Amino acid sequence: xxxxxxxxxxxxxxxxxxxxxxxxxxxxxxxxxxxxxxxxxxxxxxxxxxxxxxxxxxxxxxxxxxxxxxxxxxxxxxxxxxxxxxxxxxxxxxxxxxxxxxxxxxxxxxxxxxxxxxxxxxxxxxxxxxxxxxxxxxxxxxxxxxxxxxxxxxxxxxxxxxxxxxxxxxxxxxxxxxxxxxxxxxxxxxx
Length: 191
What we know:
Layout: H1 7-26, H2 33-39, H3 44-50, H4 54-78, H5 83-90, H6 93-96, H7 104-112, H8 117-137, H9 143-166, H10 170-189
Helix pairs in contact: 1-4, 4-8, 5-10, 8-9, 9-10
């Protein structure tokens, strides 16, 4: 059966989107290829037309999801969106409650630490790019001071989101988000 031009790319894109949501929602280790392909409406055999292995898919999902976040940071920078707005959006209850469509870093970072070097290299490169873009959004300080602030802010945001998702006390979860938001904004505005 012949497919239209672009069908293979569309199918790969669909697999990436399904895997990305499943990985973020349930974790990489908990998600099997059969479940991904079933939700994508494809056979297991079709997987290997697009990816060499599950690890290849993990890397592709990370690069794709983090590239999308990077593009949002670029758009924020181009449109003059303040880093405080980014912090408030990230540390929102809406983001906390939607892990499947939220930040891949917060959802997957603990697992990525146990993946092969190639996957960690891809992750490291994308995180470095995001930190650089956040540093450019910070208005005060030298380039090195803004970078240091961006690393601290991003780390605070990711860690707070992870903890806020993990606790089963909504009030505590809300407090974690609010206190991290306050601290991150203070760091961004500290002259």
